[in-house]
Specification:
Lambda_DNA-bd_dom_sf, Helix-turn-helix domain-containing protein, 434 Repressor (Amino-terminal Domain), 2 domains, 47% helix, elongated, single chain, Beta-Lactamase
């Protein structure tokens, strides 16, 4: 793989992280308010990592590959969390053996498809790389949107979150959800900086939405591991849902995403009502629409 995209992203990531730290936060003397750069200077990072300014500059400019000890020191100095450290290693080409990429692969694993069919009261969908929506069950369509009506090229969770007004209104804390999705997408982009479909998705969203463009430029990264979100559903009312992911062993880039609620809670009852409503709607639809 060509290193151009990876090294360019590495430099941007390092610049973004050092811009967030002040000399005082890392134990350096503050030279006063008249600093020409926001955050730490390159030479200050170099001092803290115990390397020359020229060495650090070459790393940031993509002209020299950093050793693992230097990367570990950079992660410590820049106060990276676990996901950010893993992202740094990926960008620096130290993230382990390269994994084969099947960029055109969109076929859902049969086991995941069967599991989707069995989940009659739990919203679930299969996400691929870039948060492409590969498959879903009727409950996910009832909860989020009728994915069958969305053109395949826009059948993408983050695209809908930023571009569909109904999806924005559905998320009670839209900004929090959207920023989290941007960070997840950024983490995925670091694993394959030359993916043309990722570049097209990011480019389109950057043109369409100022928030996406600004948050993408923050270079925050996160893993798609689960959490909680509140939805304001037009039929089921307010739903406070836990979401989690299950990866396929045979296709690790495909993840089953599940939305659940604690039994006995209003949200659990709301999901049961939504399942009943979705079933009634399906039974009353003409055969051609089923």
């Amino acid at each position: 793989m060509s290193g151009d995209g990876r090294t360019n992203e590495l430099g941007a990531f390092l610049r973004a992280r050092r811009a967030e730290l002040t000399p005082r936060e890392v134990g350096l003397p503050d030279t006063g308010p008249r600093r020409r750069v926001r955050g730490l200077r390159r030479e200050e990072v170099a001092v803290l990592v115990s390397i020359s300014t020229d060495y650090y500059t070459r790393i940031e400019q993509g002209r020299r590959q950093a050793s693992e000890p230097v990367l570990a020191a950079l992660a410590r100095v820049l106060r990276l969390d676990e996901e950010e450290r893993a992202y740094l290693l990926e960008l620096a080409g130290r993230g382990g053996a390269a994994r084969p990429r099947r960029r055109a692969e969109r076929r859902v694993q049969p086991a995941l498809r069967r599991l989707l069919a069995e989940l009659t009261t739990t919203p679930a969908l299969v996400l691929g790389r870039r948060m492409d929506i590969l498959d879903w069950n009727p409950m996910a369509a009832a909860l989020l949107t009728d994915f069958a009506r969305v053109p395949e090229r826009h059948r993408n969770y983050i695209w809908l979150l930023f571009s569909d007004p109904a999806m924005r209104a559905l998320h009670a804390h839209w900004e929090e959800s959207a920023r989290s999705c941007v960070a997840m997408l950024r983490g995925e982009a670091g694993r394959d900086p030359e993916d043309p479909r990722m570049a097209a998705l990011v480019g389109e969203l950057s043109v369409r939405d100022d928030d996406f463009r600004r948050w993408w430029g923050d270079h925050r990264v996160a893993a798609r591991v689960g959490g909680s979100k509140t939805l304001r559903h037009p039929v089921a009312g307010e739903l406070v849902l836990d979401w989690d992911t299950v990866a396929s062993v045979t296709a690790p880039e495909q993840q089953l995403v599940l939305w659940t609620a604690e039994p006995g809670t209003p949200t659990h009852e709301g999901l049961r009502f939504l399942a009943s409503w979705a079933g009634d709607a399906a039974r009353s639809a003409p055969p051609s629409a089923r």
